[in-house]
Amino acid sequence: MTETPLTRNINPEKGPTDLTAYEANGGYQAVRDTIGQADPKSVLETISDANLRGRGGAGFPTGMKWSFVPAPSDTGHRYLVANADEMEPGTFKDRLLMEFDPHQLVEGMILSAYTISADIGYIFIRHEYHTAIQRLREAIQQAEDRNYLGNNIQGSQFSFKLHVHVSAGRYICGEETALLNSLEGKRAIPRAKPPFPQVSGLWGRPTIVNNVETLCNIPHIIANGADWFKSLGIGKDAGTKLYGVSGRVNNPGCWELPIGTTGREIVEQHAAGMKKGYSLRGFLPGGASTDFLIDEHLDLPMDYESIQQAGSRMGTGTMIILDDKTCPVGMVANLEKFFARESCGFCTPCREGLPWVKEILDTIEAGDGQPGDIETLERQAKFIGGLGNTHCAHAPGAIEPLTSGLKYFRDDFEAHIKDQKCRYSQEAVR
Amino acid sequence: MNVANNNLINALSAGEIAEIEAEITHLPDRKSAAIDALKIVQHHRGWISDESLSSIAQLLGVANAELDAIATFYNLIYRQPVGEQVILFCDSVSCWIMDGDKMCDAVKSRLNIDYGETTADNKYTLLPVTCLGACDHAPVLMVGDTLHSDLTTDKVDEIFK
Amino acid sequence: MTVIHVDGKEYEVEPGSNLLEALLSAGLDVPYFCWHPAMGSVGACRQCAVVQYANDDDTQGRIIMSCMTPVTDNARFSVATESASGFRESVIENLMLNHPHDCPVCEEGGECHLQDMTVMVGHRDRQYTGKKRTHKNQYLGPLVGHEMNRCITCYRCVRFYQDYAGGSDLAAFSSRDKVYFGRAEDGVLENEFAGNLVDVCPTGVFTDKTLSKHYTRKWDLQSAATICMGCAQGCNTYTSERYGEVRRVHNRFHQDVNGYFLCDRGRFGAGFVNSDDRIKQAGIRRDDGLYEAVSLAEAVSQASDMINASQRVVGIGSARASLESNQALRTLVGADNYCNGMADIEREMHAIIIEALKSDIATPSMREVEQYDAILILGEDITNHAPRLALSVRQATRNKAGEMAVETKLALWQDAAVRELAQNSLSPLMIATPTQDRLDDVATLSTRLDSAGIARLGFAIADQLHDIKIAEDDALEATVSAITETLSAAKRPLVISGTSSRNADVMRSAANVAAALKEINPNTGLCLCASECNSVGVALMDNEHSLTALLGSSPDTVVVLENDLATTLGADFKQIASSIKNLVVIDHLDNATASMSDLVLPAATFAEAEGTYVNNEGRAQRSMAVFVPGHHGAASDIKASYHLLDNLADRSRTSSEVRAEMVSHSPQLQKVIDAAPSEDFTVRGSKIARMSHRASGRTAMLADVSVHEPQQPADADSAMTFSMEGVQQQAPASLRAFTWSPEWNSNQSIMKFQESVAGSDRFGISGALLVEKTQPPVVYDATVKQIGQLVPQHHIFGSDPLSNHAEELASLAPQLYIKMNDQAAGELGVSSDDGLSYQADGQSLEFRVIIDNAIPDNCLVYPLVPDTDCLTGLDEVSLTRIDDWTPPGPAGKAQLITSDRAN
Ligand SMILES: Cc1cc2nc3c(=O)[nH]c(=O)nc-3n(C[C@H](O)[C@H](O)[C@H](O)COP(=O)(O)O)c2cc1C
Ligand code: SF4
Ligand code: FES
Predict the structure, then answer these.
(1) Are A199 and A347 in a shared domain?
(2) Which of B36, B93, B147 has the CB atom closest to A335's CB atom?
(3) ipTM score of the complex?
């Protein structure tokens, strides 16, 4: 039986893990053992050694990210932010962690804050996650009552206050620098990097932003050590990963599996394969902003490098399955409509370019496509998606399903234009 | 700042002001509470009227335009009246694959409204929303704080009966 | 210097700059929108993309935004490579999706940065077949038009308005491709620098409504380099004309003075030239008391007779007239019978300014003001009295941000990042004024005192800088200590004061603070704001002769040059004026003095006559005539004042001859000659043209009068022509009539004339500093006179005698009010919105009561507008409450001036 540290307390049937159950299962032991006891530098070393990579989508090594935070040189605040915005279409993993084991995130944040000497933390969570919000607030209160949070935690010199900030909605808030502007009560426009948030983040102060799942790994790494963590993964990457599958599969859901599990195992075993009458045409491996892959890629281990080599990104690890009765053009149109709508409106390629793409896709899907449309889409995709072409990563992510959709399902695009109709809507299987 | 002297701010209830002030305590300055304040007032009033906007702006010490710039950026701040409950219909990809559009049409015809509209009895306003993070139970929608998943047309009828 | 390689060529560039700035400075054409030389980079438009190569072997390179990329030694770039140029073309193509392509009816057409950039990137064919989104436009007041559909979302407008100018009523609303730049609702833009939106917007969203009213394309305008008449800062402007009317004023870059920006008084105030109140003909008062218009020749001969028959002729000069005109007057009446036209208190205050100019304490230019890291303002409401300076002071408060950026190794041009880093951190700005100040929002300390209190504060600070303790019980002690500590700790402290409080003690105290600071810090600066566009000039010329003494010396004839004595003399005017036997007035606008005169001669305005004006810093600058009055119709009798005055003595001289005489008489003005080249100057044998070579229809403009091409008038006074014939681009900055460069039709073409971006002019700097700063500072006696209750409040719109005649600005002038605190209101028995009446001398005024508890006890603040001239110089007034008073219409701009931000 493989270990599932992140979800060991989680049983949706039974409801959320309360403090007693959490502590009974070793919860907050890492806090008691570490805060005021261990040198933050050595904790950072452990995290770096563990080779934990960010679970928010980009896979940036967490230890390295933290090491860019300058040593405290003044008395000003330093911040730790949990990115709990989870708005990437097709992604449903952080909600699970927060709703059913809120203390795990709280503990992860306490330990992370200690490591980077942050004194204030925020959980930036989307408005729609009412249950998670409520449970996190309760957990924070309980942790404060036990002095896991607050002033002089466990009798140490270290103090850490944690607040829940509920977003007012916008996908771009998940982009970490836009998130910071939003936390500051401003329009969520991404910031230019450099300066990186580690140096000038929230209110101009050193700040770390991490994904919920990333932070949830921290207590386990500290409790069990870097080697243990590395041993959890199958390939090069370390730890477990929450993988998910949505679409026309028999058992859509989210499972904690060793990182590097193959897509085929995830789809065929855990998601119990395609629904009867449907077969797999392709899939987005990790959320809406990743490139399509196709059946042949299912045998690749779902780790950062393998998926990247196949021309996509592991992203959030939550797969969206395109079946053979769903129109790829329609799916891409749906995705681009989303990205166009969620553009913050700051930089030109994204703000103007995506709506045009959406417009063309809609006309093609509606049967009004024109010769040359595909070429325009390709040109726009290059324009919008090129590295460095835009101010933030929203646009390049947005364009990934389009570029790869044109690559793998070009016939469909061409047929739509030639036949002036969408054959899938005609079939009306469902 | 002299709150008591100000007519517009008095348009906010003491409770709203207290909630906003509580948010401000853990922020470095008043204006950083802009989004929290908008959400608090919207929670009490359903939406942010021009009057509410001016009151909040004064309470936070910012200009109306500065606050409205923020309010109009976020899609869950309503600058127009909404019904008693807002229906957030997920129109993202996983729900779309699972026939979300059809469910949405069912909602629309059941309630006789389109996106952005409010029912004649002022009960519901329908808005599209980004993936609700329940893709394993697509298609989904939210009514107020409640998530409804694995939608079927029967279920839609049930919810809005 | 840093060496970079661009498309195989080597360039030496300024270390630390961004690549875009470096490339533009090197003369390369790289398109851009969101970057602005004064506002830095944010990386929004993505138009400035180029390719950077990692090393010599890298052939692919990657797209970078040049405005967001620091230059580093030996870095390799390509502007020309297809991947970069293709991307830039796509940027325009995408920006155009929603742009209405309405160039033919757009005011920006022909000087549109978007047009220029479109041509530059070569985008031509339209692929987009979808619908365009449309926006509703807003009413933004009488000055600035709004046409949102043209917007390309570069964010420059809000960055200027909010971040640079501190405005809060213009913002970016909504998101994605629906972003909207405007106000929360229709209404007058509140910021005093809103007009710069016209220049800052790279397309036609924000337009100059005063131009739109009688629209003329840029290339059809006749223009000249002019100096703003609005205040004593001496901002450089281009004034443009067609059909004998001023059509617009816009910014003329001067690296030391106004840089890229003007205030709205300057931009929109020149409409007075077109005013119905213009005196267009000479006139003589007949025996029956009525005025009769006569020919100029007759008026001149009658005036000469009057003068010749007089025992004693005195000449009243003017601080808003050119040095040349004042000199011609001085020649006419003799040096002992000439005064510079300032009231005695003004003369006293300007004497302090002159001393400060001569002292070895730095007198910073406005651009230099931006470098000071601690500023104390004593008694001067600079936003209303010296507006452009307020914009510089606002930038100076960002030096703290700059320091923090340097510590974090962040380049200063990283505009958004530096603001993020600094948050609310400000360099100290300490303001002592009687009323709320527009700069309070960036002030680290604001204190409200009456002007005597401010003078006491100043003297106490000076004392404490000398370690002289002030009296224990003094209520000011804490403020004094705080200010003293801050100023002593500064690297570059600056003291600002000026004439707006009409209290010389305030200025003396400011001078003493600067003198005391200078002893501990050689980098101290002192900036004293003068009253009018040429106050410093005429005070340098002659500040000895007293106006009241001259008027009191029983002259038979008084010649008044461009000076409304009602404003100058205030309450005393009527009595003095009625005692003058022959009152000869030379002016361009009807005013109280003109209507009491016996003879009037029609004077040219700055737009019609060359002249030299000296600003605050003692910088002499030449303003060139834009057009010949009346040329496009019947001949006109309007002439430059100095020509009219010369005519009275049967003389005729060019302006440079007048100047030559002036400097021989007043050697302290010697450098005036250097302010700009004189009439014999040529570039490669040619004079300088006032029209662009594309000026169309010049020869046809009068076809309805005569089909024969009229001869263009000659310009004997300057090195310029009234035509498109002549040199345009190679002209020195002081003569260049407009900025234009091939492919750069917009005002952004200025970079083609700069040594490097935002740097000095390649063709010669205009203007000359007159005063050598060699003396030790004067230290004044610290006595403070008690003052009356009345506190005059300057208004950017309303307090300037010239711009008040510009229709649009007149509509923004405040209605009469008196502001006071509860204590004063209690004593007068009034409350908010009551009416107060003032009656004296046949004059009756009604004021609205505004309660403002920030105002010190006993102060009655009133707006300095023409109606309240009669209060000038009064110590006490008797005011009575009006029963059942209904205020006249909605409150005007006056209420907007009180800060719209809560503190
Ligand atoms: C448009 C956009 C949306 C994003 N949304 C999220 C999100 O909802 N949750 C998240 O954790 N990361 C999101 N990210 C990634 C974050 O910017 C950031 O990389 C991440 O929070 C870092 O955490 P990690 O290092 O723990 O992965 C988003 C990025 C982009 C460009
Ligand atoms: S890429 Fe899109 S979301 Fe990102 S800054 Fe540009 S406009 Fe905003
Ligand atoms: S000028 Fe560089 S991105 Fe706009």
Answers:
(1) no
(2) B93
(3) 0.96
Same-domain status, A38 and A140: yes
> What is the fold, at CATH topology level, of the domain defined by C790-902?
Barwin-like endoglucanases (2.40.40)
Distance, CA of B118 to CA of B112 (rounded, Å)? 9
Instruction: Name the domain boundary from A183, A207, A231.
Output: A231
* Ligand 2 touching residue A354 (CB < 6 A): no
CB distance B68–C173 less than 8 Å? yes
Q: Name the A residues in 148-187 with CB < 8 Å from any B CB.
A: 161, 163, 165-171, 182-187
CB-based contact (8 Å) between A385 and chain C? Answer: no
Q: What number does the ligand 2 atom closest to the CA of A345 have?
A: 7
For residues A29 and A178, state if they share a domain: yes
Report yes or no on A222 lying in a domain.
yes
Q: How many angstroms separate the CA atoms of B115 and B104, rounded?
A: 9
Q: Residue B3: what pLDDT?
A: 40
- What digits encode the pLDDT tens for the residues C290-316? 899 999 999 999 999 999 999 999 999
Q: Tell me which of C696 and A124 has the higher pLDDT.
A: A124
Rounded-to-integer distance, Cα C415 and Cα A411, Å: 47
Q: What is the pLDDT of residue C357?
A: 98
The 10s digit of each residue's pLDDT in A36-95 is 999 999 999 999 999 999 999 999 999 999 999 999 988 899 999 999 999 999 999 999
CATH (domain of A415): 1.20.1440.230
Residue A427 lies in a domain: no
pLDDT at B11: 85
pLDDT value of residue C469: 76
Examine residue A2 and state whether it is found in any structural domain, yes or no. no
Looking at residue C887, what is its pLDDT? 78
Q: Helix count (H) and strand count (E) of chain C?
A: 28, 35
Task: Assess contact for C397 and C438: CB atoms under 8 A.
Answer: no
Above 60 in pLDDT, residue A426? no
Please tell me the total count of domains within chain A: 3
Q: Based on the domain organization, do A70 and A171 belong to the same domain?
A: yes
Q: What residues of chain A lie within 8 A of the CB of C45, using their CB?
A: 347-348
Contact across the interface for B65 and C423, Cβ inside 8 Å: no
Q: Is residue A8 part of a domain?
A: no
Q: Which parts of chain C have pLDDT scores under 50?
A: 891-903
Q: Is the dihedral angle over the CA atoms C244, C250, C252, C256 positive or is it negative?
A: positive
| CATH top class, domain C2-95 | alpha beta
Domain C347-530 has CATH 1.10.10.10: no
CA–centroid distance, residue C155 to ligand 2 (Å):
13
In 3D, which of A51, A117, A111 has the Cα closest to residue A79?
Answer: A117
Given a contact cutoff of 8 angstroms between Cβ atoms, the answer to whether A175 and A190 are in contact is yes
**Closest ligand, as measured to the CA of C65:** 3
Q: Looking at residue C841, what is its pLDDT?
A: 76
Reply yes or no on whether the pLDDT at B22 is more than 90: yes
Strand ranges (DSSP E) for C31-82?
49-53, 62-65, 76-78
Q: In whole angstroms, what is the distance from residue C548 CA to residue C546 CA?
A: 6
Residue C473 has a pLDDT of: 58
In the three-class reduction of DSSP (H, G, I as helix; E, B as strand; rest coil), residue A113 is classed as helix
Provide the domain limits for residue A247. 240-323
pLDDT recorded at residue B5: 43
Same domain, A254 and A219: no
> Which residues share a beta bridge with C879?
C838
Q: Which two tokens stand for residue A68?
A: 């860019």
Best residue for ligand 1 mutational test, from A125, A175, A221, A390 (most atoms within 8 Å of Cβ) = A175
A174 and A86, same domain (yes or no): yes
- My answer on whether A340 and A317 are in the same domain is no
Q: Are A281 and A323 within 8 A, CB to CB?
A: yes
Q: Where are the domains of chain C?
A: 2-95, 347-530, 790-902
Give the CATH number for residue A312.
3.10.20.600
Domain match, A284 and A343 both: no
What pLDDT, on a 0 to 100 scale, did the predictor assign at position C472?
59
